[in-house]
Amino acid sequence: MNPRDTITVDIPLFIRLLEYAREDAQTDMDLHDVADNIISLSTSGKTLSMDDYSAIIGSQENIDEIRMLQVRAGIIK
Description:
- The chain is an all-alpha fold.
- It contains four helices and no strands.
- Helix 2 packs parallel to helix 4 (60-72).
């Protein structure tokens, strides 16, 4: 399991997240939403990659769906 308050992202995703913060985020709330999504996706302890980008930038509904699939697959409880 993932230690509390720890996330792991690969370099391409890290660079793209910096680009999003500089170029695409419209408000501070956008950045808070992204942080919440990253934390939610990190519960399994896996390294996040560009495959996770749309879920990170997407809505909380996307994250909930991914978590539900992870629970069904036995990845997380």
